[in-house]
Amino acid sequence: MPRNLLIPTVLLLAACTSGGDETANASTSIDAAPSSPAAAARTAAPPPAPDTDSRTPAKPGALRSFGDWTVGCDNGLSCTMASLAPEDGEFPDMMVTLTREPGPKGAISLDLSAQGEDAGDVSLAIDGSAPSIRAAKGGVGGADAQRLASQMVNGTRLVVRDAAGTTIATLSLKGAAAALRYMDDRQGRVGGTTALAALGPKPAEAVPAAPPLPVVVSPKPGGTAATLTKAALAALRKRAGCDLEGVGVSQDPEISALGDGKSLIVLPCSAGAYNLIAALFVTDGKSTEPARMDVASGMGPIDEQTGIPDVVNGGFEDGVLTSYAKGRGIGDCGITQSFVWDGSRFRLVEQSEMGECRGNPEFITTWRARVVRR
After folding, report:
1. Which part of the chain has CATH 2.60.40.1880?
2. How many CB atoms neighbour CB 166 within 10 A?
3. pLDDT tens digits for 239-295?
4. Less Cβ crowding at N or C end of the chain, within 10 Å?
5. Three-class SS of the chain
6. By C-alpha distance, which of 374, 127, 130, 104 is closest to 259?
7. What is the value of pTM for the model shown?
8. Superfamily of domain covering 9-213
9. Residues of the chain whose pLDDT is less than 50?
10. 195-208 pLDDT, tens digit each
């Protein structure tokens, strides 16, 4: 299964459409598509019984980029926008993500990170305005977050200062207004009092509630994991086109019981500087076949020659199969996925992405499902 060990360009740039060139002002227009998540929420069929598998096809939301910000919403209408480093400049010491929950209340929160680390106690201000807003342990919520988000619409820069008042990061707000307007549109807030960039007279009650998350019923893993002979493993490696000779990583597979006499085989197959790709098989002890997935996983799509899916930097634990495909070593772009077994295939229950390799390590969630164990 030789694969390009860097995430394909089409995956990393899927977030970027012509929106990447859009200007960062409150008048930027986002066309409200009739099939938007908010519109669909108003006409959706009644949710299934709480513990019934909804059989909903997994369709992660798309990411959009506007200037120095990227934004996306998941199928539950939770939206997140993330700051990006300038394309032609150095990475700021801090990055910001703003998340807004769906529904009439639509709580807002801001989080700061420095390559995944806690930002500590800092203060934030738009264009150096006073008073600044304190971010305790790198986070802001409630009325302060609402005020900051509203100020971002017409601001040009977000200044981060430490406890002594020294500026430690200055983030461009180019594209922030357009990203906020996109969130307003996706959540059905355009023209309403709860909008941030597309304000109007419509009352908060006009904003649709969050749609129910799809349900995936997954049997509790149990039983005894299968064992494979050296000859059987060698045959699987050949079948998957694995090549780990001289790489210096373990070639031992991870074999886990799925229940009902079946086991998952996570077989290390190829590696690069920061991505270890593993081929996926399911065996019942008599026959072994490529695992079935409901969406492309790992470095997907599935290799046409082998027909075998994979995960990257992943494994199986507590009944969850994970994948973390890095776009580059510092981990500021790529895709993370979580899957559970439904008795016949692995189903996507969470996906987060960052399509821009521009210094922000906080990925944006684009798909969620609720898992029911039986």
Report:
1. 9-213
2. 8
3. 999 999 878 889 999 999 999 999 999 999 999 889 999 999 999 999 999 999 999
4. C
5. CCCCCCCCHHHHCCCCCHHHHCCCCCCCCCCCCCCCHHHHHHHCCCCCCCCCCCCCCCCCCCEEEECCEEEEECCCCCEEEEECCCCCCCCCCCEEEEEECCCCCCCEEEEEEECCEECCCEEEEECCCCCCEEEECCEECHHHHHHHHHHHCCCCEEEEECCCCCEEEEEECCCHHHHHHHHHHHCCCCCECCCCCCECCECHHHCCCCCCCCEEEECCCCCCCCCCCHHHHHHHHHHHCCCCCCCCCCCCCEEEEEECCEEEEEEEEEECCCCEEEEEEEECCCCEEECCECCCCCCCCCCCCCCCCEEECCEEECCEEEEEEECCCCCCCEEEEEEEECCCCEEEEEEEEECCCCCCCCCEEEEECEEEEC
6. 374
7. 0.87
8. Invasion associated locus B (IalB) protein (2.60.40.1880)
9. 4, 6, 8-35
10. 999 999 999 999 99
